[in-house]
Write a structure and sequence with these properties.
The chain is 79% helix and 2% strand. The protein has 394 residues and is mainly alpha-helical. The chain has one domain: MFS general substrate transporter like domains (Growth Hormone, Chain: A). The chain has a two-stranded antiparallel ribbon with strand order 1-2. The longest helix has 30 residues.
C-alpha cells in the first residue's frame, strides 16, 4: 500500500505462478502445431486428419467452457487446476507413441476440456487480482507469461523434430509440461482468500455479451489461432520449399515454421502488458477498431507476398493485432463476470475450431493456401466494421 505505483505496474506472485503453470502446460499442444502440418504423412495421416486433430480440442471446448466455469464454482480450484495440468502432460506423452488416429483424436478432446479448466481459472484469478480500471494491464501480464509457453513449445518442438524426430520431441514436451502442476497449484493456493471470486464485484448491469462481441471473438479465434497457426507451415513449403540456405547454412522449414510461430508468442509475451495499457488508455472498443484495421491490412498484403522476409514482417504485424484483440475482448467480457468470459472463450474456440478444419479442407480440394489468408483479411474487415461507432457495445 505504501508503493501503489509499483503494485499497479508489476504482477503479483500468485498471478505469475498460475500463469507459469498455464504456460508450461502448453508445450505438448504447441508441439503438434509445429510438427503435424509438416510430418503428417509419415504418421499415416491425410491433410483432413491434420485439420481434425488441430481443431478437435477447440470443438470440444464449445461444450466444456461453461462446464469448467460451473466446476470452478463447486470444486476446490487448486485441485481442479492441478488435475488439468497433470492431464496435459500425460496426453503429450501418449502422442509421442504415435497412436492410431482414433486415440490421437481422443487425446485432443481430453486436452480441450483440460484447457477449458486451466484458462477459466487462470483468467478469473487474474481479474480477481486486479483493479477494475486495470483489468487490461493485468490480463496483459497473464497473457504475456502464458504465451511464453506457446513460444518455447513451438520453437523447441521444431528444433527437436529436425534433430531427433517426432517421438523424441513429444516425450520431451511431456516432461516439461509435467512441471506445470506445482506452479499452478502453489500459485492458486497463494491467492488471498478474500480476493478469490472478487471479480464478481466487477459485474456490470448487462451480464451477457452482445452478438457483435461474440462474432468478433469467433473471427479472432478463427484467423489467429486457427488459419495462421495451422497452415503457416504448409504456406511456407509452397512458397520457399522444404529448406532454405541462409549464409551457407541449410535450414529446414520445420525450424523456420517453429521460429515464426514462436515469434507470435514472443510478441505476445513482450508486448501484452503494453497492449493491455493501450487497451485501458484508449478504451477496449477503440483498441478493437485500431487492431482489426491493422490485422486486415497485414493479412490482405500477405496474400500477394511471395518473398520470405516481407511475408514474415506482415505476419508479425498480424500477430501484434491478434494479441491486442484478445486482450481487449477478454477485458470487456471478464468485467461482466465468469459466465460472460466463458461465453467469449467459447467464441474464440469456435473460431479456432473452424479455422484449421476449413483451411485444410481447402488444401485438400484446391491446394491453394493463399485463399485462407484472403479469407482472414475479409473476416478481419468484418470485425472492423462491427467495432465502428454505432456498432459498439457499451
Amino acid at each position: 500500500m505504501n508503493h501503489p505505483s509499483i503494485s499497479k505496474s508489476l504482477p503479483s506472485k500468485p498471478l505469475v505462478l498460475v500463469a507459469v503453470g498455464a504456460a508450461l502446460s502448453l508445450f505438448g499442444d504447441m508441439a503438434l502445431y509445429a510438427i503435424l502440418p509438416i510430418h503428417f504423412s509419415a504418421l499415416g495421416l491425410n491433410p483432413i486428419h491434420v485439420g481434425i486433430l488441430l481443431s478437435a480440442n477447440r470443438w470440444i471446448r464449445l461444450l466444456t467452457n461453461h462446464l469448467a466455469e460451473e466446476l470452478s464454482g463447486k470444486i476446490d480450484n487448486s485441485i481442479l487446476l492441478l488435475a488439468a495440468l497433470i492431464t496435459g502432460s500425460v496426453l503429450a506423452a501418449i502422442y509421442g507413441f504415435m497412436p492410431p488416429f482414433w486415440l490421437f483424436l481422443s487425446g485432443r478432446l481430453v486436452w480441450g476440456f483440460s484447457w477449458s479448466v486451466i484458462r477459466q481459472i487462470g483468467i478469473m484469478t487474474s481479474v480477481s487480482l486486479s483493479e477494475k480500471d486495470s483489468v487490461g494491464r493485468t490480463l496483459g501480464f497473464y497473457n504475456g507469461i502464458t504465451r511464453l509457453g506457446s513460444m518455447a513449445g513451438i520453437l523447441l518442438a521444431g528444433i527437436l523434430f529436425d534433430a531427433g524426430g517426432f517421438s523424441r520431441a513429444l516425450f520431451i514436451a511431456a516432461g516439461i509440461s509435467l512441471t506445470a502442476a506445482p506452479f499452478g497449484y502453489v500459485g492458486y493456493k497463494m491467492v488471498p482468500v478474500h480476493l478469490k471470486g472478487r471479480s464478481e464485484s466487477f459485474k456490470e448491469k448487462e451480464i451477457s455479451l452482445k452478438p457483435s462481441l461474440l462474432i468478433q471473438s469467433i473471427i479472432v479465434g478463427g484467423i489467429g489461432r486457427g488459419v495462421v497457426m495451422s497452415t503457416l507451415g504448409y504456406i511456407l513449403v509452397q512458397r520457399v520449399g522444404e529448406n532454405i540456405t541462409f549464409e551457407g547454412i541449410v535450414i529446414g522449414v520445420a525450424t523456420i515454421n517453429g521460429v515464426i510461430l514462436a515469434s507470435k508468442n514472443i510478441i505476445s509475451s513482450v508486448l501484452s502488458p503494453l497492449l493491455g495499457v493501450v487497451s485501458d488508455y484508449l478504451g477496449s472498443q477503440k483498441s478493437l477498431t485500431l487492431f482489426f484495421f491493422l490485422g486486415a491490412v497485414s493479412m490482405g498484403l500477405s496474400v500477394f507476398t511471395i518473398s520470405l522476409f516481407p511475408l514474415i514482417f506482415l505476419i508479425m504485424i498480424f500477430f501484434i493485432s491478434d494479441t491486442s484483440l484478445i486482450i481487449s475482448l477478454s477485458s470487456i467480457a471478464a468485467k461482466k463476470g465468469p459466465e460472460s468470459y466463458a461465453s467469449l472463450a467459447t467464441g474464440f474456440d469456435f473460431g479456432a475450431a473452424v479455422g484449421p478444419l476449413l483451411s485444410w479442407t481447402l488444401v485438400e480440394i484446391v491446394s491453394t493456401p493463399a485463399l485462407s489468408l484472403a479469407a482472414g483479411a475479409i473476416l478481419y474487415s468484418a470485425g472492423l466494421v462491427l467495432s465502428l461507432p454505432g456498432k459498439r457495445d457499451k
